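Loading example: each entry is read as four labelled lines plus one structure line.
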Amino acid sequence: MTTNRLEAFSDGVIAIIVTIMVLELHSPARADWPSLLKVAPALLSYGLSFLIVAIMWVNHHHLIHVAHKVTAGLLWSNLNLLFWMSLVPFVTDFVGKNYREPMAVALYGLALFFCSCAFYLLRKELMRQAGTDSKLVDYPAGMQRKNAMSAALYFSAAPLAYATVYASFFIFALIPAMYFLPEKKLATQQQG
Amino acid sequence: MTTNRLEAFSDGVIAIIVTIMVLELHSPARADWPSLLKVAPALLSYGLSFLIVAIMWVNHHHLIHVAHKVTAGLLWSNLNLLFWMSLVPFVTDFVGKNYREPMAVALYGLALFFCSCAFYLLRKELMRQAGTDSKLVDYPAGMQRKNAMSAALYFSAAPLAYATVYASFFIFALIPAMYFLPEKKLATQQQG
Amino acid sequence: MTTNRLEAFSDGVIAIIVTIMVLELHSPARADWPSLLKVAPALLSYGLSFLIVAIMWVNHHHLIHVAHKVTAGLLWSNLNLLFWMSLVPFVTDFVGKNYREPMAVALYGLALFFCSCAFYLLRKELMRQAGTDSKLVDYPAGMQRKNAMSAALYFSAAPLAYATVYASFFIFALIPAMYFLPEKKLATQQQG
Amino acid sequence: MTTNRLEAFSDGVIAIIVTIMVLELHSPARADWPSLLKVAPALLSYGLSFLIVAIMWVNHHHLIHVAHKVTAGLLWSNLNLLFWMSLVPFVTDFVGKNYREPMAVALYGLALFFCSCAFYLLRKELMRQAGTDSKLVDYPAGMQRKNAMSAALYFSAAPLAYATVYASFFIFALIPAMYFLPEKKLATQQQG
């Protein structure tokens, strides 16, 4: 298997994950404002999850791009990541229906925590594969610190939800913002 | 990331968007004409949305084809477009179930308006990237005017729905017709 | 746009069509034989549609392979075909739930008739594009006759369903059998 | 048709199969532990099926990689495999809802048995195609034995479920473990 094929399959799965979430947005049966307002939390949680999965997709490409060959370790680290990402539609639907319930918010945080952990393992696998190739080591090492931080934040969002769900939502909004900016910088560097 | 990969991922998402809408066409439980007539508006709104998304797909290709490199601006303009396009199945289902309700029709118009705006931003990003490359500037400039016009029409369809939904539906049918013809001309030119 | 991209997008849509039909197979809530027997018609209609769509996919590849360039005519003939194919999950679900109702069976036949017509138009477009290229003309001409015949058979299945649905089901099973064998011969020739 | 296209289409179908299963994980309407515990069997059966389909995907690649040309036999052996794999979401949902019912567990086992048989036929087709190419014959022959063994185990899981479903679940967990390890060894060899 080539890294191209791994990338194409992952792209397929991520494209489906990001799109099927919209199937869980059941449009209200009646067209009035109260009915539409009832689906607003589901729409917002969909928007947030779309953003988070989109960022994961971008990061995933930067990662797989670094890979030379598809080892069993890489293959299964990647499938492990796809598994946790595939749970995002489930927890998105759950939190959209129960956005004031600490348990739903905590579960959303935990699912994203496991995605972060899976990214951490995938990156570790790639760094191990890269060995002493200095050009590759520096970039992932910086990313790895940021990855560990966001994993810790997602993890902390779970117990925080039992204090107030707004603190957890603040974290869920903060992490995309945190990732977004440096990704921009990186892309700009790649042009130069 | 290469423009090929961006195109392939976008293709995947658009292929899913265009196809999952059919999942929201719940076939009637009983096989008689009154039951089938009840799903007719859903079928018609599906047909219209299929056409609109197909046109967007064609336009998207002509656009991405122009891109040289995947900058962060291009990447996120594209993901922004895919987000708004991913809402099309939701509003299609909504208008299919409530085709006489101004609010549902207005929401359908607004979703398409945001898609048009996202196209506008994506094209602007590409023109900025192309810089002074004269061959590229002329084509998008003409498209950009048409794009702005269709965005304005979609936007006007929202308040119009509160006067009569038929005016809005006329606009929804007019814009594909408007796009369809020139695309044909363009494709003919490309052959020559 | 290249024919590769057209093929990849069509592949994506057809892969989704063939797979999402399984989502409409709602597994029975209780695990006993009467409940399972109730979904048996849905399973059978799924199997039939899977076979029919798989054959369409194979034929589609042989067709697109012949194309030199993506003209507007080819693009929209292809999108027209994908539209009618995308209705197959809807009529499959409908006939699975109402397999003894002439109307559901007739509708299934009509949807496949429109798919056949779309194939006819697509092949006509390709033959027009091929012009006087003799190697290409012979193969599609033979296919075109078979295509017209199967379209006529699907069309006749609709009124026949009102006499007896079994005659229609016989036709639905006959056409895949008819297509299947020559495809095998063709593939054997391509090896030689 | 090239083997690349066959692989890409199969990838698309498998990516959809593996991802749409999550759509059948209906998130509980209320956010409390008893509601979440009710979906736990569905989550576990999803996890198991994800792993099984992922392994099938990996094996599928190793297989198709060996193919030289797309013959009708290969094409239809592959489509046959995709058909049985496409039933996995259906039986996963069924067993998730009825994990203590022998019939649901037996059906899950039977579906996987048919997938194994389809793999067997596909590998046989490839070995026939490879003919006397010694390098190719050794690897599939070893796999073929393992394949036949797992097919037999899946088949035995069906009657075993009527004794105790736990024995069947033990088999369902054992086979992925059995496949997982050698795949790792194989991938390591390919690196060397």
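Residues 183-192 of chain C have pLDDT under 50 and may be disordered.
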